[in-house]
C-alpha cells in the first residue's frame, strides 16, 4: 500500500514537472533581429507592428541593432534565432567558416545609387580616382558590392579612392556638407533628400548586370537562422517565412499604412516616410528559388575575389526546405 502511494506521488510530481517544462517550451520566444540604421528598418518595422509572425502562431521577441553587423554577430553567438536582413557579406563569411547557421531567404535587393551633388565636378566613374566616396561600413554587403562594381567595371581598386563609412543619414549629411565627393546611397535616402539637387551616375542593379553579364539581381540582406532553432522548432521556420511573405504583400498593397508605421518607428516626416514606402517593391523580397541561391554563390565568388569574403560557402548552408514548404501555405 505504501509502495503504491509513493509511486502515485512520484508520478504526480513527474507529470507536474513535465507540464512546467512543456509550458516553458511553449512560452519560449523566437528571437528575431533586424538592423534599424539601414534598409532593414522598413520591413522590420512593418513586420513588428503588423504582428505578421504572431498571426502565424509564433511568440516573438524583436531584437534591434544599430550596427549593420550586429545581427550577424548575435546569431553567431546564439543570442538570436533569426536575422531577417543580415548583411549578405557577413552571413556568407560565417556560413563559410562553418558556424551553425543556415541561409533561408533573400530579403533585400542591393538597390542603391552612386550619387553626387548636381554641381559636382565629378561627371563619371572615371572621376572617382583620388575622391572621397561615402558608403556603408566594411563588412556590409553594400560596401562589398560597391567596391566590387568599381573595380570590375571601372578598374578602380580600393587604394584609388578613400572610403568614408557611415549610416545612410550620415552619408547624406556628408554629401550635403561636401565632406565626401560621392555617396553610395539607397534610393530611399535619395528620395528623402528632395531639398537637395543630386545627380545619379549609376545604380547598383544596372552595374551588377553589367559586371555579371546576367539579369540576376544581388541581395544586400538575407535571412539566416541558427541551427539550434531549426532543431527545436522546424515548423517555426516555415511559419516565419509565411509571415514574412504576408508582410511583403501587405507593404506592396498598403504603402500609405507603411508610411504611417515608418513615421512612428523611425520618426520620419510624413513626406520622407511616404517616399520610403513608395520604393517598397524595388527593395524587398521574400524568395529562395534556385536562381536566388545561384546568385548568392556568384556574389560570394565576387566578394572573395575582392577580399570581402575568404572561403566558398558549402551547399549545406543553403536551406531551401522551409521556403518550399511555405509556398504550399496560403
Short key terms for the protein model shown above:
330 residues, six-stranded mixed sheet, 19% strand, D-Maltodextrin-Binding Protein, domain 2, alpha/beta
Write the layout of secondary structure elements.
Blueprint: H1 2-27, E1 30-35, H2 40-49, E2 60-65, H3 70-76, E3 82-87, H4 88-96, E4 101-109, E5 112-117, E6 132-135, H5 141-154, E7 162-165, H6 168-176, E8 182-186, H7 187-192, E9 198-203, H8 204-212, E10 219-226, H9 227-232, H10 234-253, H11 255-266, H12 270-278, H13 280-283, E11 284-287, H14 290-306, H15 321-326
Parallel strand pairs: 1-2, 1-3, 6-7, 6-8
Antiparallel strand pairs: 3-10, 4-10, 4-11, 5-8, 5-9
How does this model look, in words?
The chain has 330 residues and is α/β, with parallel strands linked by helices. The chain has 2 domains: 30-110 and 217-326, D-Maltodextrin-Binding Protein, domain 2; 112-212, D-Maltodextrin-Binding Protein, domain 2, CATH 3.40.190.10. Helix content is 50%, strand content 19%. The chain has helices spanning 2-27, 40-49, 70-76, 88-96, 141-154, 168-176, 187-192, 204-212, 227-232, 234-253, 255-266, 270-278, 280-283, 290-306, 321-326, and strands at residues 30-35, 60-65, 82-87, 101-109, 112-117, 132-135, 162-165, 182-186, 198-203, 219-226, 284-287. It has a 6-stranded mixed beta sheet with strand order 2-1-3-10-4-11, with helices on both faces. Strand 1, helix 2 and strand 2 (60-65) form a beta-alpha-beta unit. Helix 5 crosses helix 8 (204-212), helix 5 (141-154) crosses helix 14 and helix 11 (255-266) crosses helix 12. Residues 9-27 have low confidence and may be disordered.
Amino acid at each position: 500500500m505504501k509502495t503504491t502511494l509513493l509511486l502515485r506521488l512520484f508520478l504526480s510530481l513527474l507529470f507536474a514537472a513535465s507540464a512546467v517544462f512543456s509550458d516553458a517550451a511553449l512560452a519560449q520566444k523566437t528571437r528575431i533581429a533586424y538592423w534599424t540604421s539601414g534598409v532593414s528598418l522598413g520591413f522590420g518595422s512593418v513586420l513588428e507592428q503588423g504582428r505578421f509572425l504572431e498571426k502565424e502562431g509564433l511568440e516573438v521577441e524583436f531584437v534591434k541593432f544599430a550596427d549593420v553587423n550586429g545581427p550577424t554577430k548575435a546569431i553567431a553567438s546564439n543570442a538570436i534565432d533569426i536575422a531577417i536582413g543580415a548583411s549578405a557579406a557577413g552571413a556568407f563569411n560565417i556560413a563559410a567558416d562553418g558556424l551553425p547557421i543556415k541561409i533561408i531567404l533573400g530579403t533585400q535587393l542591393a538597390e542603391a545609387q552612386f550619387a553626387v551633388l548636381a554641381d559636382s565636378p565629378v561627371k563619371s566613374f572615371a572621376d572617382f580616382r583620388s575622391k572621397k566616396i561615402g558608403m556603408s561600413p566594411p563588412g556590409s554587403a553594400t560596401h562589398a558590392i560597391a567596391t566590387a562594381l568599381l573595380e570590375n567595371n571601372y578598374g578602380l581598386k580600393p587604394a584609388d579612392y578613400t572610403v568614408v563609412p557611415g549610416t545612410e543619414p550620415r552619408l547624406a549629411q556628408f554629401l550635403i556638407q561636401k565632406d565626401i565627393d560621392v555617396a553610395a546611397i539607397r534610393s530611399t535616402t535619395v528620395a528623402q533628400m528632395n531639398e537637395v539637387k543630386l545627380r545619379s551616375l549609376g545604380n547598383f542593379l544596372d552595374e551588377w548586370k553589367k559586371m555579371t553579364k546576367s539579369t540576376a539581381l544581388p541581395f544586400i540582406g538575407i535571412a539566416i537562422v541558427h541551427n539550434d532553432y531549426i532543431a527545436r522548432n522546424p515548423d517555426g521556420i516555415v511559419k516565419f517565412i509565411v509571415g514574412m511573405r504576408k508582410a511583403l504583400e501587405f507593404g506592396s498593397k498598403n504603402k500609405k499604412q507603411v508610411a504611417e508605421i515608418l513615421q512612428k518607428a523611425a520618426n520620419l516626416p510624413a513626406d520622407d516616410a511616404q517616399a520610403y514606402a513608395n520604393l517598397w517593391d524595388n527593395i524587398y523580397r521574400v524568395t529562395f528559388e534556385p536562381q536566388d541561391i545561384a546568385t548568392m554563390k556568384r556574389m560570394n565568388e565576387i566578394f572573395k575575389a575582392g577580399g570581402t569574403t575568404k572561403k566558398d560557402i558549402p551547399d549545406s548552408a543553403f536551406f531551401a526546405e522551409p521556403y518550399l514548404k511555405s509556398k504550399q501555405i496560403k
